[in-house]
Amino acid sequence: xxxxxxxxxxxxxxxxxxxxxxxxxxxxxxxxxxxxxxxxxxxxxxxxxxxxxxxxxxxxxxxxxxxxxxxxxxxxxxxxxxxxxxxxxxxxxxxxxxxxxxxxxxxxxxxxxxxxxxxxxxxxxxxxxxxxxxxxxxxxxxxxxxxxxxxxxxxxxxxxxxxxxxxxxxxxxxxxxxxxxxxxxxxxxxxxxxxxxxxxxxxxxxxxxxxxxxxxxxxxxxxxxxxxxxxxxxxxxxxxxxxxxxxxxxxxxxxxxxxxxxxxxxxxxxxxxxxxxxxxxxxxxxxxxxxxxxxxxxxxxxxxxxxxxxxxxxxxxxxxxxxxxxxxxxxxxxxxxxxxxxxxxxxxxxxxxxxxxxxxxxxxxxxxxxxxxxxxxxxxxxxxxxxxxxxxxxxxxxxxxxxxxxxxxxxxxxxxxxxxxxxxxxxxxxxxxxxxxx
Length: 438
Ligand code: MN
Known about the structure:
Strand content: 15-25%
Largest sheet: 8 strands, mixed
Number of strands: 27
Shape: globular
Distance between the termini: 54 Å
CATH class of the largest domain: Alpha Beta
Number of helices: 11
CATH topology of the largest domain: Fumarylacetoacetate hydrolase, domain 2
Number of domains: 2
Bound molecules: manganese (II) ion
Radius of gyration: 22 Å
Protein backbone atom coordinates (compact mmCIF):
# COMPACT_ATOMS: atom_id res chain seq x y z
CA UNK A 1 0.00 0.00 0.00
CA UNK A 2 1.57 3.28 -1.14
CA UNK A 3 0.44 6.11 1.12
CA UNK A 4 0.82 9.79 0.48
CA UNK A 5 0.92 12.15 3.48
CA UNK A 6 1.70 15.75 4.37
CA UNK A 7 5.44 15.25 3.65
CA UNK A 8 4.65 14.96 -0.09
CA UNK A 9 2.62 18.20 -0.23
CA UNK A 10 4.02 20.15 -3.23
CA UNK A 11 3.25 23.43 -1.46
CA UNK A 12 5.78 22.75 1.32
CA UNK A 13 8.82 25.03 1.39
CA UNK A 14 11.80 24.97 3.72
CA UNK A 15 13.44 27.80 5.65
CA UNK A 16 16.67 26.25 4.30
CA UNK A 17 16.27 28.40 1.21
CA UNK A 18 18.62 26.38 -1.06
CA UNK A 19 16.13 23.49 -0.77
CA UNK A 20 13.50 25.54 -2.63
CA UNK A 21 15.56 26.22 -5.75
CA UNK A 22 14.22 24.62 -8.94
CA UNK A 23 16.20 21.52 -9.86
CA UNK A 24 17.49 20.94 -6.31
CA UNK A 25 17.92 17.20 -5.64
CA UNK A 26 17.08 17.59 -1.96
CA UNK A 27 13.88 19.63 -1.47
CA UNK A 28 11.92 19.18 1.76
CA UNK A 29 9.82 16.49 0.02
CA UNK A 30 12.91 14.22 -0.20
CA UNK A 31 14.95 14.10 3.06
CA UNK A 32 17.33 11.22 2.23
CA UNK A 33 19.56 9.73 4.94
CA UNK A 34 23.35 9.49 4.83
CA UNK A 35 26.50 9.27 6.96
CA UNK A 36 28.89 12.21 7.05
CA UNK A 37 31.85 13.64 8.92
CA UNK A 38 33.58 17.03 9.01
CA UNK A 39 37.33 16.77 8.73
CA UNK A 40 39.62 13.89 9.64
CA UNK A 41 39.16 14.08 13.42
CA UNK A 42 35.38 13.93 13.28
CA UNK A 43 33.45 10.70 13.92
CA UNK A 44 31.05 9.76 11.10
CA UNK A 45 27.42 10.46 12.02
CA UNK A 46 23.94 10.37 10.50
CA UNK A 47 22.33 13.28 8.73
CA UNK A 48 19.58 14.16 6.28
CA UNK A 49 20.16 16.16 3.10
CA UNK A 50 18.18 19.40 2.77
CA UNK A 51 19.17 21.77 -0.06
CA UNK A 52 22.92 22.32 0.17
CA UNK A 53 22.97 21.52 3.90
CA UNK A 54 23.04 18.41 6.09
CA UNK A 55 20.76 18.26 9.13
CA UNK A 56 22.62 16.47 11.95
CA UNK A 57 20.15 14.07 13.65
CA UNK A 58 22.18 13.57 16.83
CA UNK A 59 22.57 17.33 17.27
CA UNK A 60 18.79 17.69 16.99
CA UNK A 61 18.19 14.87 19.49
CA UNK A 62 20.55 16.59 21.93
CA UNK A 63 18.37 19.72 21.59
CA UNK A 64 15.20 17.69 22.37
CA UNK A 65 13.63 18.27 18.97
CA UNK A 66 12.01 14.79 18.69
CA UNK A 67 9.25 12.89 20.49
CA UNK A 68 7.61 9.46 20.39
CA UNK A 69 8.52 7.12 17.51
CA UNK A 70 10.64 9.83 15.91
CA UNK A 71 12.67 10.08 19.13
CA UNK A 72 13.19 6.31 19.18
CA UNK A 73 14.31 6.50 15.53
CA UNK A 74 16.62 9.45 16.26
CA UNK A 75 18.23 7.50 19.11
CA UNK A 76 18.95 4.66 16.62
CA UNK A 77 20.76 7.31 14.55
CA UNK A 78 23.46 7.85 17.21
CA UNK A 79 25.68 5.49 15.22
CA UNK A 80 28.17 5.71 12.37
CA UNK A 81 25.87 3.74 10.03
CA UNK A 82 22.15 3.48 9.31
CA UNK A 83 21.78 -0.20 10.30
CA UNK A 84 20.03 0.40 13.66
CA UNK A 85 17.55 2.80 12.08
CA UNK A 86 17.00 0.35 9.22
CA UNK A 87 16.36 -2.44 11.74
CA UNK A 88 13.53 -0.48 13.39
CA UNK A 89 11.45 -0.71 10.23
CA UNK A 90 9.49 1.60 7.95
CA UNK A 91 7.17 3.02 10.63
CA UNK A 92 10.02 4.46 12.72
CA UNK A 93 11.93 5.82 9.73
CA UNK A 94 8.69 7.34 8.42
CA UNK A 95 7.96 8.99 11.78
CA UNK A 96 11.45 10.51 11.85
CA UNK A 97 11.07 11.76 8.27
CA UNK A 98 7.71 13.36 9.19
CA UNK A 99 9.24 15.03 12.25
CA UNK A 100 12.12 16.35 10.10
CA UNK A 101 9.64 17.67 7.53
CA UNK A 102 7.79 19.57 10.27
CA UNK A 103 11.05 20.97 11.70
CA UNK A 104 12.43 22.12 8.36
CA UNK A 105 9.32 23.64 6.73
CA UNK A 106 8.70 27.37 6.65
CA UNK A 107 5.64 26.97 8.90
CA UNK A 108 7.85 25.55 11.67
CA UNK A 109 7.89 28.83 13.55
CA UNK A 110 11.12 29.73 15.35
CA UNK A 111 13.75 27.69 13.53
CA UNK A 112 16.75 29.07 15.40
CA UNK A 113 17.38 25.88 17.44
CA UNK A 114 16.98 23.58 14.43
CA UNK A 115 19.28 25.86 12.40
CA UNK A 116 22.08 25.04 14.88
CA UNK A 117 21.94 21.44 13.57
CA UNK A 118 22.81 22.33 9.95
CA UNK A 119 26.22 21.89 8.38
CA UNK A 120 27.24 22.83 4.81
CA UNK A 121 27.24 19.76 2.57
CA UNK A 122 30.32 21.16 0.81
CA UNK A 123 32.33 20.77 4.05
CA UNK A 124 31.30 17.15 4.65
CA UNK A 125 32.99 13.89 3.76
CA UNK A 126 30.40 11.24 2.97
CA UNK A 127 30.74 7.61 4.08
CA UNK A 128 29.06 4.32 3.23
CA UNK A 129 25.46 4.66 4.46
CA UNK A 130 25.39 1.23 6.11
CA UNK A 131 27.56 -1.66 7.22
CA UNK A 132 26.77 -3.97 4.32
CA UNK A 133 27.01 -7.59 5.45
CA UNK A 134 25.59 -9.09 2.26
CA UNK A 135 25.29 -7.98 -1.33
CA UNK A 136 23.25 -9.60 -4.08
CA UNK A 137 23.17 -8.39 -7.67
CA UNK A 138 20.06 -9.08 -9.74
CA UNK A 139 19.56 -9.09 -13.51
CA UNK A 140 16.11 -7.56 -13.88
CA UNK A 141 16.18 -5.67 -17.21
CA UNK A 142 14.84 -7.79 -20.06
CA UNK A 143 16.52 -5.42 -22.52
CA UNK A 144 19.94 -5.76 -20.85
CA UNK A 145 19.54 -9.53 -20.57
CA UNK A 146 18.57 -9.81 -24.25
CA UNK A 147 21.34 -7.49 -25.50
CA UNK A 148 24.03 -9.17 -23.39
CA UNK A 149 22.71 -12.62 -24.31
CA UNK A 150 22.88 -11.82 -28.05
CA UNK A 151 26.65 -11.44 -27.82
CA UNK A 152 27.17 -14.98 -26.56
CA UNK A 153 24.04 -16.77 -27.87
CA UNK A 154 22.72 -14.91 -30.93
CA UNK A 155 20.28 -17.74 -31.64
CA UNK A 156 18.82 -17.81 -28.09
CA UNK A 157 19.65 -14.53 -26.30
CA UNK A 158 17.11 -14.67 -23.46
CA UNK A 159 17.45 -17.78 -21.31
CA UNK A 160 14.22 -19.59 -20.48
CA UNK A 161 14.25 -18.81 -16.73
CA UNK A 162 14.39 -15.01 -17.17
CA UNK A 163 10.62 -14.50 -17.23
CA UNK A 164 9.96 -16.99 -14.42
CA UNK A 165 12.20 -15.55 -11.71
CA UNK A 166 14.46 -12.56 -11.02
CA UNK A 167 17.94 -14.02 -11.71
CA UNK A 168 20.69 -13.01 -9.27
CA UNK A 169 24.09 -13.96 -7.84
CA UNK A 170 25.69 -13.43 -4.44
CA UNK A 171 28.29 -10.69 -4.75
CA UNK A 172 31.09 -9.46 -2.53
CA UNK A 173 30.02 -6.95 0.15
CA UNK A 174 33.58 -6.03 1.22
CA UNK A 175 34.37 -4.17 -1.99
CA UNK A 176 31.31 -1.90 -1.96
CA UNK A 177 32.55 1.65 -1.49
CA UNK A 178 31.08 5.11 -1.32
CA UNK A 179 30.88 7.37 -4.37
CA UNK A 180 34.19 9.08 -5.13
CA UNK A 181 36.33 6.01 -4.48
CA UNK A 182 38.77 5.66 -7.42
CA UNK A 183 38.39 2.58 -9.60
CA UNK A 184 41.85 1.00 -9.85
CA UNK A 185 41.94 -0.84 -13.16
CA UNK A 186 41.90 -4.45 -11.97
CA UNK A 187 44.17 -7.27 -13.10
CA UNK A 188 42.63 -10.54 -14.10
CA UNK A 189 42.75 -13.57 -16.32
CA UNK A 190 41.09 -13.54 -19.71
CA UNK A 191 41.10 -15.30 -23.06
CA UNK A 192 41.73 -12.68 -25.78
CA UNK A 193 39.66 -13.27 -28.90
CA UNK A 194 41.47 -15.63 -31.27
CA UNK A 195 43.89 -16.79 -28.55
CA UNK A 196 44.08 -20.39 -27.37
CA UNK A 197 45.63 -19.69 -23.97
CA UNK A 198 44.57 -17.35 -21.18
CA UNK A 199 46.61 -14.29 -20.25
CA UNK A 200 46.95 -12.31 -16.99
CA UNK A 201 47.08 -8.53 -16.90
CA UNK A 202 45.09 -5.31 -16.48
CA UNK A 203 41.56 -5.61 -17.87
CA UNK A 204 41.10 -4.23 -21.39
CA UNK A 205 37.31 -4.13 -21.11
CA UNK A 206 36.52 -2.03 -18.05
CA UNK A 207 32.83 -1.08 -17.97
CA UNK A 208 30.29 0.61 -15.71
CA UNK A 209 26.80 -0.74 -14.95
CA UNK A 210 24.10 1.84 -14.22
CA UNK A 211 22.00 0.27 -11.46
CA UNK A 212 19.68 1.12 -8.59
CA UNK A 213 20.83 -0.06 -5.15
CA UNK A 214 18.18 -1.31 -2.72
CA UNK A 215 18.95 -1.14 1.02
CA UNK A 216 17.13 -3.69 3.15
CA UNK A 217 15.52 -2.33 6.32
CA UNK A 218 14.09 -4.76 8.86
CA UNK A 219 15.33 -8.29 8.17
CA UNK A 220 13.56 -11.65 8.36
CA UNK A 221 14.17 -14.66 10.57
CA UNK A 222 16.09 -17.58 9.08
CA UNK A 223 13.67 -20.00 7.48
CA UNK A 224 10.85 -17.43 7.19
CA UNK A 225 10.21 -16.15 3.66
CA UNK A 226 8.99 -12.56 3.24
CA UNK A 227 5.62 -12.65 1.43
CA UNK A 228 5.51 -10.35 -1.59
CA UNK A 229 2.69 -8.30 -0.05
CA UNK A 230 4.98 -7.42 2.88
CA UNK A 231 8.22 -7.14 0.92
CA UNK A 232 8.41 -3.35 0.79
CA UNK A 233 8.03 -3.15 4.58
CA UNK A 234 11.53 -4.66 4.57
CA UNK A 235 13.04 -2.07 2.19
CA UNK A 236 14.57 1.09 3.69
CA UNK A 237 15.38 3.00 0.53
CA UNK A 238 17.22 3.30 -2.76
CA UNK A 239 20.54 4.72 -3.96
CA UNK A 240 22.53 4.86 -7.20
CA UNK A 241 24.85 1.94 -7.77
CA UNK A 242 27.77 1.50 -10.18
CA UNK A 243 28.61 -2.19 -10.53
CA UNK A 244 32.02 -1.71 -12.22
CA UNK A 245 32.73 -4.74 -14.41
CA UNK A 246 35.75 -6.20 -16.24
CA UNK A 247 34.06 -7.81 -19.24
CA UNK A 248 37.05 -9.82 -20.49
CA UNK A 249 37.66 -11.29 -17.02
CA UNK A 250 33.92 -11.87 -16.51
CA UNK A 251 33.44 -13.74 -19.78
CA UNK A 252 36.34 -16.14 -19.22
CA UNK A 253 35.70 -16.90 -15.55
CA UNK A 254 31.90 -17.19 -15.61
CA UNK A 255 31.77 -20.61 -17.22
CA UNK A 256 29.76 -22.15 -15.58
CA UNK A 257 29.40 -20.52 -12.14
CA UNK A 258 28.75 -16.86 -12.94
CA UNK A 259 30.37 -13.52 -12.00
CA UNK A 260 33.37 -13.53 -9.64
CA UNK A 261 36.56 -11.42 -9.93
CA UNK A 262 35.25 -9.54 -12.95
CA UNK A 263 32.88 -7.80 -10.51
CA UNK A 264 34.40 -7.91 -7.03
CA UNK A 265 37.14 -5.27 -7.44
CA UNK A 266 34.77 -2.33 -6.75
CA UNK A 267 31.11 -1.37 -6.64
CA UNK A 268 30.15 2.24 -5.84
CA UNK A 269 27.05 3.54 -4.02
CA UNK A 270 25.77 7.10 -3.85
CA UNK A 271 25.91 8.43 -0.28
CA UNK A 272 22.27 9.51 0.13
CA UNK A 273 19.59 6.85 0.60
CA UNK A 274 16.20 8.02 -0.70
CA UNK A 275 13.54 6.38 1.46
CA UNK A 276 10.63 4.40 0.07
CA UNK A 277 8.37 6.98 1.77
CA UNK A 278 9.93 9.79 -0.29
CA UNK A 279 9.38 7.72 -3.45
CA UNK A 280 5.65 7.18 -2.82
CA UNK A 281 4.45 9.80 -5.36
CA UNK A 282 6.52 8.21 -8.13
CA UNK A 283 5.14 4.66 -8.15
CA UNK A 284 3.86 2.98 -11.32
CA UNK A 285 2.37 -0.29 -12.47
CA UNK A 286 4.81 -3.18 -12.83
CA UNK A 287 6.14 -3.41 -16.41
CA UNK A 288 4.14 -5.37 -18.96
CA UNK A 289 5.42 -8.96 -18.92
CA UNK A 290 4.51 -9.61 -22.57
CA UNK A 291 1.70 -11.70 -24.03
CA UNK A 292 3.62 -14.98 -24.14
CA UNK A 293 5.13 -14.71 -20.65
CA UNK A 294 4.66 -17.66 -18.27
CA UNK A 295 2.11 -17.24 -15.47
CA UNK A 296 3.70 -15.66 -12.41
CA UNK A 297 4.03 -18.18 -9.62
CA UNK A 298 1.91 -17.10 -6.64
CA UNK A 299 4.76 -15.95 -4.38
CA UNK A 300 5.90 -13.44 -7.03
CA UNK A 301 2.48 -11.92 -7.61
CA UNK A 302 0.07 -9.73 -5.65
CA UNK A 303 -2.40 -6.98 -6.64
CA UNK A 304 -0.36 -4.14 -5.08
CA UNK A 305 2.73 -5.22 -7.00
CA UNK A 306 0.82 -5.24 -10.29
CA UNK A 307 -0.72 -1.81 -9.66
CA UNK A 308 2.24 0.07 -8.14
CA UNK A 309 5.26 -2.24 -7.87
CA UNK A 310 7.53 -0.16 -10.13
CA UNK A 311 9.28 3.14 -9.35
CA UNK A 312 9.60 5.85 -11.99
CA UNK A 313 13.25 6.96 -11.71
CA UNK A 314 14.91 8.68 -14.68
CA UNK A 315 18.56 7.60 -14.55
CA UNK A 316 21.54 9.10 -16.34
CA UNK A 317 25.18 8.13 -16.86
CA UNK A 318 27.77 10.64 -18.13
CA UNK A 319 31.40 10.22 -19.16
CA UNK A 320 34.10 12.84 -18.88
CA UNK A 321 37.57 11.88 -20.06
CA UNK A 322 40.81 13.42 -18.77
CA UNK A 323 41.14 15.36 -22.02
CA UNK A 324 37.57 16.65 -21.78
CA UNK A 325 38.34 17.92 -18.27
CA UNK A 326 41.52 19.65 -19.48
CA UNK A 327 39.64 21.28 -22.36
CA UNK A 328 36.71 22.32 -20.18
CA UNK A 329 34.23 20.06 -22.02
CA UNK A 330 31.25 19.07 -19.88
CA UNK A 331 30.60 15.43 -18.97
CA UNK A 332 28.79 13.77 -21.87
CA UNK A 333 25.50 11.93 -21.28
CA UNK A 334 25.53 8.41 -22.74
CA UNK A 335 22.78 6.42 -20.99
CA UNK A 336 19.21 7.51 -20.07
CA UNK A 337 17.22 4.46 -18.93
CA UNK A 338 14.26 4.55 -16.54
CA UNK A 339 13.95 2.16 -13.61
CA UNK A 340 10.20 1.88 -14.35
CA UNK A 341 11.01 -0.41 -17.32
CA UNK A 342 12.63 -3.19 -15.24
CA UNK A 343 10.94 -6.55 -15.82
CA UNK A 344 11.03 -7.44 -12.11
CA UNK A 345 10.06 -5.17 -9.21
CA UNK A 346 11.77 -4.56 -5.87
CA UNK A 347 9.05 -6.53 -4.05
CA UNK A 348 9.57 -9.48 -6.40
CA UNK A 349 13.34 -9.38 -5.78
CA UNK A 350 12.85 -9.43 -1.99
CA UNK A 351 10.16 -12.15 -2.11
CA UNK A 352 12.25 -14.30 -4.43
CA UNK A 353 15.45 -13.79 -2.42
CA UNK A 354 13.75 -15.09 0.75
CA UNK A 355 11.47 -17.77 -0.74
CA UNK A 356 13.79 -20.52 0.52
CA UNK A 357 14.05 -18.94 3.97
CA UNK A 358 17.28 -17.05 3.22
CA UNK A 359 17.86 -14.37 5.83
CA UNK A 360 18.10 -10.72 4.80
CA UNK A 361 19.66 -8.33 7.30
CA UNK A 362 19.37 -4.58 7.89
CA UNK A 363 21.84 -2.84 5.58
CA UNK A 364 22.03 -5.68 3.09
CA UNK A 365 22.32 -4.31 -0.43
CA UNK A 366 20.53 -5.60 -3.53
CA UNK A 367 21.63 -4.34 -6.95
CA UNK A 368 18.87 -4.08 -9.55
CA UNK A 369 21.18 -5.25 -12.32
CA UNK A 370 22.01 -2.96 -15.23
CA UNK A 371 19.03 -0.74 -16.03
CA UNK A 372 18.53 -0.69 -19.80
CA UNK A 373 15.51 0.28 -21.84
CA UNK A 374 14.43 -0.55 -25.37
CA UNK A 375 15.96 2.48 -27.10
CA UNK A 376 19.60 2.95 -28.13
CA UNK A 377 20.01 5.88 -25.71
CA UNK A 378 18.63 3.80 -22.83
CA UNK A 379 21.44 1.24 -22.60
CA UNK A 380 23.02 1.15 -19.13
CA UNK A 381 26.58 -0.06 -19.85
CA UNK A 382 29.29 0.14 -22.53
CA UNK A 383 28.99 -3.58 -23.35
CA UNK A 384 25.58 -2.76 -24.83
CA UNK A 385 26.29 0.81 -26.03
CA UNK A 386 29.34 -0.22 -28.08
CA UNK A 387 28.26 -3.83 -28.76
CA UNK A 388 31.31 -5.16 -26.99
CA UNK A 389 33.68 -2.58 -28.55
CA UNK A 390 32.51 -3.12 -32.14
CA UNK A 391 30.82 0.32 -32.38
CA UNK A 392 32.84 3.03 -30.58
CA UNK A 393 31.07 5.95 -28.92
CA UNK A 394 31.90 9.39 -30.28
CA UNK A 395 32.62 11.92 -27.54
CA UNK A 396 32.58 15.72 -27.82
CA UNK A 397 36.16 16.89 -28.43
CA UNK A 398 36.77 14.11 -30.94
CA UNK A 399 37.67 11.17 -28.72
CA UNK A 400 36.12 7.73 -29.02
CA UNK A 401 35.41 5.10 -26.39
CA UNK A 402 34.79 1.39 -26.60
CA UNK A 403 35.53 0.58 -22.95
CA UNK A 404 36.76 2.90 -20.18
CA UNK A 405 40.25 4.36 -20.26
CA UNK A 406 42.40 5.58 -17.38
CA UNK A 407 41.32 9.05 -16.26
CA UNK A 408 37.68 8.62 -17.30
CA UNK A 409 35.08 9.86 -14.82
CA UNK A 410 31.72 8.10 -14.68
CA UNK A 411 28.91 10.18 -13.17
CA UNK A 412 25.44 8.84 -12.36
CA UNK A 413 22.47 11.02 -11.47
CA UNK A 414 18.74 10.31 -11.15
CA UNK A 415 15.47 12.17 -10.70
CA UNK A 416 11.83 11.38 -10.01
CA UNK A 417 9.33 13.73 -11.61
CA UNK A 418 5.55 13.62 -11.71
CA UNK A 419 2.91 16.25 -12.40
CA UNK A 420 1.49 17.64 -9.18
CA UNK A 421 4.55 16.78 -7.07
CA UNK A 422 7.93 18.35 -6.37
CA UNK A 423 10.73 16.49 -8.19
CA UNK A 424 13.36 14.79 -6.06
CA UNK A 425 16.90 13.65 -6.89
CA UNK A 426 19.44 11.11 -5.72
CA UNK A 427 22.62 13.23 -5.75
CA UNK A 428 25.58 11.68 -7.56
CA UNK A 429 27.47 8.42 -7.74
CA UNK A 430 30.89 9.19 -9.23
CA UNK A 431 34.16 7.39 -9.80
CA UNK A 432 37.39 7.90 -11.75
CA UNK A 433 39.32 5.13 -13.45
CA UNK A 434 42.97 5.13 -12.34
CA UNK A 435 45.82 3.10 -13.88
CA UNK A 436 46.42 -0.50 -12.93
CA UNK A 437 49.07 -1.12 -10.26
CA UNK A 438 52.47 -2.02 -11.68
MN1 MN B 1 25.55 -5.72 -12.14
